[in-house]
UniProtKB/TrEMBL annotation:
Annotated ATPase of the ABC class C-terminal domain residues: 177-448
Name used for this protein in its record: ATPase
Domain ATPase of the ABC class N-terminal: 23-169
Region described as Disordered: 1-23, 437-471
Length: 573
């Protein structure tokens, strides 16, 4: 370690390589103190610490650039987590979720950062458990004074804060063992509950005692002093979970379910909880036992969105322009056509459960009552309302719908069950609704089938495969090179890391040939899912050094569908 004296501030001669150990790193940082910032580059590569290795993967060029990136590997023996905590992929995801949150708390006041996520436990690149080895990916904002290296602060971050966080956050013997175990068990229970839904012919389950409302639109933590959920007696059912044992709550069966009730009584809150029932929530969230089928998709109106060669003919026919609505494209969809396209796309992608809320739906796509049918002849109305398609959609395609509809009673004619929210309490009012529905409204049905839709074959040239820059703007938008994809209306996205994951996955689907110009959208998504099952986060990308999470197929499809450069090459009937 003779290079200590070789402190050539800003000079040309490189520092001779240090021994690549923790001490070597410390010495090198000390020797670089005051040198020009660019010399941080010499830290790239592996450093062997006591019990873990640090790999510096990407060094920022200047103090104002995005943080540098590194990876820590704590081998299984040193980490010491009992194998039952990572014995299956779900438990391993739970363990990673617990650890990354522990490390995040430890690093709060340091220059190191880790993407821990919030209420949902996603499969994310920032922490992975591989056969008991803990792999953690961090950002480090390399400290500078002006354009020179602040070696002292760098030493604090890399030689003290980092080893402390690893020692206290990523090892079983220092961990809050009970908390970690409860976290992993809880995630496994949520997942097990969700997996049991299809065999019980349910689309969703909301446990007694669940807390549904959130603190605010920007704070996803549970509302304090909320009224806990309690199932109507008639819908109460029980599940056996691997860790908690038996739980009870409301089962929402397949078919058509309406949520009614006065304004401000908690309808949308229930629906939103169902929307997020595709995720496993952290213990204490209140939604640990609120689940829906994994293929549940929320749809809404989204005027202005792009639609690319979608078969919206079940909903839209004979437009005044004479457009062929089985091959419908627009750069600027209306409320109703955007929602029609989103429903068709969800079905195309393989969803078996749709969620809709009157608050965000296009009225003219949802309903057309008797008087309006009387006044406007069917020949001059291109739209067939969802009201007349919702039943055939289930009968023929087995796609269930749960929708909030407080403003129109017409849906009582087609509903299998009606839930009412009254002061945040849930009641079943199916019988009363049936009674009312026996009095005819005078309206006549406008459709008796939901025809098969055409499957689109996307062209791989839709996506720039030359590794375009992938960036997320919160959960609102994805930037792929020069193109921006609006995702604000894709409401089941909860984390910017998912948006990055979508961008990377799109590029990699095109690069790897999953998206090959022969597979349909659904086949591409099937192939993607199979890759994710096999390779986890690496199926999304295995070179990217930033943070991302594995996206769900439906959000991947939603982004593809909104991509303004999407080209659909062919159809398969
Ligand atoms: P609706 O869709 O019926 O008009 P919302 O679901 O938007 O009503 O709820 C209205 C308000 O009530 C929201 O501010 C929400 O946070 C609050 N809220 C919903 N459910 C509960 C509950 N279980 N306990 C306490 N407050 C709730
Ligand atoms: Mg509402």
């Amino acid at each position: 370690m003779a290079q200590r004296t070789n402190n050539n501030r800003g000079g040309r001669a490189p520092t001779p390589p240090a021994k690549r150990t923790a001490e070597g790193l410390r010495d090198q940082l000390r020797s670089m103190h005051g040198a020009s910032y660019g010399r941080y580059k010499s830290l790239s590569g592996n450093w062997a610490f006591d019990g873990f290795t640090l790999e510096v993967q990407k060094v920022q060029p200047d103090p104002y650039a995005p943080a540098s990136r590194c990876e820590v590997r704590v081998d299984a023996e040193h980490a010491g987590f009992p194998s039952d905590l990572w014995s299956n992929p779900v438990r391993a995801r739970g363990l990673a979720g617990a650890l990354v949150r522990a490390v995040h708390r430890r690093l709060r006041d340091s220059r190191l950062s880790v993407d821990a996520g919030r209420q949902q436990v996603l499969d994310r690149s920032s922490c992975q458990i591989v056969d008991g080895t803990v792999v953690l990916r961090l950002g480090i904002d390399m400290p500078g004074r002006g354009r020179s290296i602040d070696g002292k602060q760098a030493e604090q971050a890399l030689c003290r804060d980092l080893p402390d966080a690893v020692e206290q956050g990523l090892r079983w013997h220092t961990a809050d063992q009970q908390r970690v175990r409860e976290f992993v068990d809880s995630i496994e229970d949520t997942d097990a509950l969700r997996r049991q839904l299809p065999e019980r012919n349910l689309v969703a389950f909301v446990a007694d005692g669940a807390i549904l409302p959130r603190r605010s639109g920007i704070d996803d933590r549970p509302l304090q002093q909320a009224v806990p959920f309690s199932s109507p007696e008639s819908l109460r059912t029980e599940f056996d979970l691997p860790n908690r044992g038996r739980v009870s709550g409301m089962g929402i069966a397949e078919g058509i379910s309406l949520i009614v009730g006065g304004g401000f009584h908690g309808k949308s809150t229930l629906l939103r909880a169902l929307e997020h029932g595709i995720y496993d929530h952290v213990p204490g969230d209140g939604r640990e036992l609120v689940v829906c089928r994994e293929d549940t998709v929320k749809v809404r109106a989204e005027d202005g969105r792009r639609v690319n060669r979608v078969d919206v003919s079940p909903f839209v026919s004979h437009l005044p322009t004479g457009t062929d609505t089985s091959d419908f494209s627009t750069d600027n969809a209306s409320g109703s056509t955007s929602q029609a396209a989103s429903i068709v796309e969800a079905v195309e992608a393989g969803s078996k459960a749709l969620l809709l809320d009157e608050d965000t739906a296009a009225t003219n796509l949802m309903i057309r009552d008797a008087r309006m049918q009387e006044l406007v002849a069917k020949d001059s109305e291109p739209l067939t309302p969802f009201l007349d398609l919702i039943r055939p959609l289930y009968d023929r395609h087995r796609v269930s719908t749960v929708m909030v509809m407080g403003g129109s009673g017409d849906y009582m004619d087609v509903a299998d069950r009606v839930l009412m929210l009254d002061s945040y309490r849930c009641y079943e009012v199916t019988d009363r609704a049936r009674g009312l529905a026996s009095t005819p409204t005078g309206r006549h049905r406008e459709a008796d089938t939901f025809p098969d839709i055409r499957s689109r074959v996307p062209d791989p040239r839709s996506i720039d495969t030359d590794r375009p820059k992938v960036r997320s703007r919160g959960t609102d938008a994805l930037t792929l090179g020069q193109t921006t994809v609006e995702l604000r209306a894709v409401e089941q996205l909860v984390d910017p890391a998912q948006v990055t994951g979508i961008g990377l996955a799109l590029v990699n689907c095109a690069r790897s040939g999953l998206l090959d110009g022969r597979r349909t959208v659904r086949e591409v998504l099937d192939a993607f899912d199979a890759e994710v099952t096999k390779r986890g986060v690496h199926a999304v990308d295995d070179r990217y050094v930033g943070d991302f999470a594995v996206p769900r197929r439906f959000e991947l499809a939603a982004a593809l569908n909104r991509l303004r450069t999407l080209r659909v090459g062919a159809f398969r009937e």
